[in-house]
Amino acid sequence: MRLARSSWAVACCVLLSAGCSSNDLAFEATGDSAPDVDGVAVGTLRIDVTAPAGVASPDLRPQTHLAYAGRYTGLSVALRPTVEVFGTLTAEIAHPWSAASVPTEILPLAGSVDASLELSVQKASATTDELGAFSMSIVADNFYSLAIVPADAAASPLVALSTVELLDTVDLSRTLPLGIPVYGRVTDHEGNAVFGAPVRIRRTDSVNDTPSNPVLTDRTGWYTLRVAEAGAYRVEVVGGQTEEDRVLPGIEAEIDVGEEDAAAYLDVGVLTEVSVSGTLRDPAGGRLEDALVRATSLRLDGSAGSVVLETQTDEGGAFNLRLLPGRWGFEYIPEYGDAPVAGPLAAQYTVSEDISVGSLTLPGLRRLGGVVTGNDGVAVGGVLLRLTQTAFGEHVYTATTAQDGSYSVEVPDTEYEVTAFPPAEALSAVTSVVVPSGASGDLELQQGDPVSGVLTFEDVPVQYALVEVRDARTGRLLGTTTSDAEGRFAVEVVVPEAEEPEDTEGTGSSDTGGADTGSGTDTGSGTDTGGRTDTGGGSDTGSGTDSG
Questions:
Q1: Domain boundaries 180-267, corresponding CATH code
Q2: What residue spans define the domains of the chain?
Q3: Cα 158 to the chain's mean position, in Å?
Q4: Does pLDDT of 506 surpass 70?
Q5: pTM higher than 0.85 for the full model?
Q6: What is d(CA 520, CA 353) in angstroms, rounded to the nearest whole number?
């Protein structure tokens, strides 16, 4: 059986023609659009292959192939060659406010070119040099997302393409036109201009949602961005600490860009700042230097936006973080290093004025251990354990079982996703969620579905390549092995099944954040409920509880 390529047959191929004129980004549609994760059937596996250097010339790059449900054995995996994508990019440059079609001059484009294939390891990126030239290597395939991202998003347009064929060496040399201007103003709740706000744009009607580089608003709050073609876009004020040392919430607006121009006006709300300060200590009372303090807005009193802010403690363990009034989730994360001395702490505060949380002692470490057995109850030695925190930055610890199947590792007392990788093909990897202070860390390996095949390149076996088997929908690692001298590989995995929809009838929502006194002086107890809040600001955080 020949293994399906990651370039799904149902996807639309848009051929980025090497024969385009310098002012034309020409495409040729040949089918439907490539699916996102919802278009991949449950039970589909990703076979990620990383060949050792020197197997082919040029060296093979990491690549993804698909195995469909029920067809996991006897796979013929023909690795695809590496192709070069290169070119020289120039751009028509005009005044940023100009919508005129007559450029002032043509100059080398400063920026980047990015290509990636969704649900795969296949990606490449290159930055243009002073002449606008670039070059990058990528696996030959269909349906890439390709973006040309100018450094100056006000002068040159964002180009975001999907379903691009890169099957052979391609020269992408071209001149970008002025594009379509998108302009607007960023103001506070009183209509005052916000200076120095970073604003960017991205497509929303395509699988390629690569954002532009941000531009900064001028002293009157105005900005201009440019895009290559009409369509649906999202304009975003990037939340965080600005270059002008102000705290801004992230705000976005959905717009339709026509053939001529478009506008988006963004109100970031109330920008009155307050501060939260305190000191962090380890369980022995020592002051924690360089600990990360991360604050994620759960609700902002004067804005519809959200923001994630970070700082670090100084040499005395002290921190002071400026933010906006509202409800905040805080994470205190010590430096882990090779020998961590404390674990992370989560807390929530309602802040309406400057507050001090005092001296906080982070929790100590706990020993997580257990015994790993096969499904016959016999202990299994040599099992590699990968322990990934489900919150607090997803730090990873590793351990290996002894001959009696036992393992023990000292870790912070928070929730972990523990994956056990057996040393033999007869058993499959298993994953379990554990908390050191909670349930036992015992794990039972299972007999799963065999995944096997042979790796070749131009009909020659590919020896000693790393083969990682993942759930194609989630990217979760299910098993790993290495091809032998004849290119053969074999591993057993537990294939994910379709999840039953949750029955939420009769259940009510609950606040896991603990009692809120409304005074702005809640103190974190350090107990992590395991809940995670998506703030829209690019970070998922453990919610913790308040002691109130």
A1: 2.60.40.1120
A2: 4-45+82-176, 180-267, 284-364+515-542, 367-493
A3: 21
A4: no
A5: no
A6: 7
* Span 308-363, pLDDT tens digits: 999 999 999 999 999 999 999 999 999 877 677 889 999 999 999 999 999 999 99
pLDDT in tens, 391-429: 887 788 899 999 999 999 888 888 888 888 888 766 677
- Residues 201-221: b if buried by 16+ CB within 10 A, e if exposed: bbbeebbbebbbbbbebeeeb
Write the DSSP symbol of residue 193. Answer: B
Whether the bond into 422 is cis, omega within 30 of 0: no
Q: Can you tell me the distance from the alpha carbon of 407 to that of 368, in angstroms, rounded to the nearest whole number?
A: 8
Contact between 209 and 82 under an 8 Å Cβ cutoff? The reply is no
Calculated CA dihedral for residues 522, 526, 527, 530, nearest 10 degrees: 100
Report residue 167: phi and psi, to 5°.
Answer: -100, -20
Q: What are phi and psi of 39, to 5 degrees?
A: -90, 5
Neighbour-count burial of 309, counting CB atoms closer than 10 A to its CB (0-12 exposed, 13-18 middle, 19+ buried): buried
State whether CATH 3.40.50.300 applies to domain 367-493.
no
- Torsional class of 487: left (φ above 0), alpha (ψ -120 to 50), beta (otherwise): left
Give strand pairing partners of 162.
none
d(CA 198, CA 194): 10
SS3 state at 128: coil
Among residues 513, 522, 331, the alpha carbon closest in space to that of 412 is found at 331
